[in-house]
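Review this:
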Amino acid sequence: MQMLLGSVLSKILGFASVLIVTHWSTEQSFGSFSYAQSIVNAIIPLMGVGAYQAYVRYAADQADIQAKQKLYAYAYSRGMVFSIVLAVVLFFSASFICGDVPESISSFKILSFTVVTTLFMEYVKSNARSVHKNDYSGWIDTWYAVSLVSLSLVLALLYGVEGYAVAILVSPLIAALPYSLKLRASLVTWPKMEQVVPSGFWKYGIFTSIGAIIAQLFFTVDIIQMGRLIADSEKMIALYRISVIVPMAMLILPSTIAATDYVSNSEMKHNAQALRNYIKGYWKIMIWLTPLLLLSVGILTPHILRLFGDYYSSQPEIMYVALIGVGGGYLLRVPFGNLLSAVGRADVNTYVNIAVLIAAFFLCQWAIPLWGVYGAAVVMTVMMWLNGLASMIFFIRYYKSLDKVL
C-alpha cells in the first residue's frame, strides 16, 4: 500500500512541479525543455544495461539475504559504471541529438546525468523490494516528489527550465540516499562474476532494458516526430505535452500494482493457475474502475488544462483522445507487459514493442502533417490498445504452455 500511495503522491506532486514551471516559463521554452526531456526519458531505460531489473528478477531465486546482497553488489557496480559513461557521451553529443530543436540543448546537457541519479534511486528501490521492504520503495517515491516540487519552486523561479532540469537531476539523490544507508545499498565493491551471477542474468537484463527503451520510445516518438515535421514546433510540443501529462500520469496506478506484485509474480512463474487467478483478480477491479476514472478526468479536462494557462486549454480534444489510450494501458498493456517480464519473457515484450514503435513512427509521419498534434494523439491511442492486445495474446500462450508441461 505504501508503494501505491508513494507513487500516486509522486505523480500528484510531479504534476504540481510541471504546473510551476509552465507558469514561470514561456510556451517556447517549456516546449524545448519537453523535447529534451522526452529524448532523455527514452534513453533512461538503458541505464545500467538492465542490471537492476535483472537483479529484481533473480533476487527472488536467491536462498538468503547474503546471496541477495552479493548479487546486488555485482549488479550495482557494473550498472553504475556503465551509466556514468553513458551520461558523459550524451552530454557531449547534445548538439547532434537535439539538432531539430537547438533551444533544447542546454536542458538536455543537464538532464543527461539523470541516467546516473535515477539509476541510483532505482537500485535502492529494487533492493528494498527484493527484501520485501516495499514501504521503503514507497517512501523513496514520496520524498522524490517532495524534493522535486521544493527544488522546482526555487530553481525554476531563478533559472527557468534549466533550473527545473537541475531539480529533476538532484531529487533522486535526495530521496534515495537515506534509505540507501539503511539498506547498505550503495555498495562500491566489485565482486567477480563467479558464483554470483545466475544463468541468464545478463540476457534477461539486456532484453528488459532494450524492451523498456523501445517502450519508452513509444511515448517519445510522437514528440520527436513533431520536432522533425513541424516548423517552429516548440509551442506545439508544449501544448501536446500538457494535454497528455495527466492521462500518462494516470498509468501510475496499474504500473505501481505491477511493480508491487512483480516479485510474487516472478516466484509463481511456473504456476499457470496462480497466474490466471492473478489476472482475473486484476480485471475484476479494473473493469469497472478504469471507465470510472477516465470519465471523471474527462469531465474535469477543461478545468485541468486551464490551470496551466489559456494557451494550454485551447485544444481539449487532445486530452480526450489520450484518455481513451490510457484505457488500453490499464486493461491490457501494463498488466500483461509486466507479467511477461516477471515470468522471464522480457524478450517477447521487446519484439512486441519494436513492432508497435515502428508502426507508430510511420503513422506519425503520415498523421502529423495532416492533422498536427491531434493526429499524433490518435496514433498513440490506437497503438496503446494494439500493444496491449499483442501482450495479452503472448501471455495467454505462455500460461497455456505451462498446462501442457504439467
The chain has a mean pLDDT of 86.
